[in-house]
Amino acid sequence: MAFEIIPLTQAYPTSQFGESKWVAHLLAHTGVECFHATHFLLQSVQETMPIFSVHLSLMHKCIELLAKALVVGTDWSTTPKQHGHKVFEMMEKYKETIPVFAAIIADPVKKDHILQLEKAYFAVRYGEAYFSAHDKDVRESLSIAEELIDAYHNLTGVPLIPKHFATQTSLP
User: Going from the N-terminus, what domains does the chain have, and what CATH number goes with each?
Assistant: First the structure.
């Protein structure tokens, strides 16, 4: 087998990795990695050709994982798998308890962006369409992702991006 997948609860049996807050933290950190990778690809486009399908996957995964981190961090009775890949549906369901979701849905540009991103993600994922995006569209995804990152930081106190560390006096 090329990959070995070891559940964290098995690798660290005395840890608390099975608890919802740790699941939320891991989702958030992976979402932030996708955020940084999307930034990197966007900056690289000037030197290479655009890689649209990679941008799409990274943007969707970034926003999806950050949204799931907020959901799991807020509602410890849920699991990330319960929500599949439908970001807008998840935001709609939790907009009353997660203010950033309500703000994104209330903004027609951001709402439409999430809906179009999700539609494109599924169409490309299942080989039904080709995707391309302008820099401004990628930047809009990054802007939404940063809102989610900030909301997670505000919820948990966990610093995720440099601006969070600048104001941090000690780790939570």
Answer: 19-157 (1.20.120)
